[in-house]
Amino acid sequence: MAWYTLQDDSWSQQSSPPPGGFCLHVRAENTGAPEVRALADGQEFFHLSGVTPRPTADTTHTVARIDPDTATGVRLFAVHADGRDLTFEDRRPDDHRRDRTEQALQHARSSLNEILVPVYIDDVIEELSERVSGLVALHTAQYEDKKSASWTYFRTSVFDDGDLALEEEYGSI
Fold first, then answer.
1. pTM reported for the whole predicted model
2. Which residues are CB-contacts of 164 (< 8 A; sequence separation ≥ 6)?
3. Terminus of the chain with fewer CB atoms < 10 Å: N or C?
């Protein structure tokens, strides 16, 4: 699967991990849940896999903030889509509930309530990335059977200060 590194303010895809520095690894194999891993100097510091989908959800979107400068990452929220109905789920650990992302998350939640079609979630995540430090990663997955890890579609996009840094897509909707 793809490895991405940031060089000279642009992201490049590589077939193997770099020997040092920051990189993202996107893995979406036919078995197992798709994931995005963040590494610094060869050590994984954050692992983004999707949250467990709700029984009625068609698609589950999981959003995380990844900070390459501090080698930290945290899940922010998940959005479960059942057709056009969206359910917002705060996924921050308790020690991040009162941090500076609170206002940005409230804005994202409000924006999600206004969108008519869940495919516009990228617009909300792009705007969120302008309001928080680091990268904002979106993990979108659809599953054949919600009780297993058998997915039919996976897409990840990573935004940096309002700009799409990278995007990977597997399967079909």
1. 0.86
2. 122, 126, 157, 158
3. C
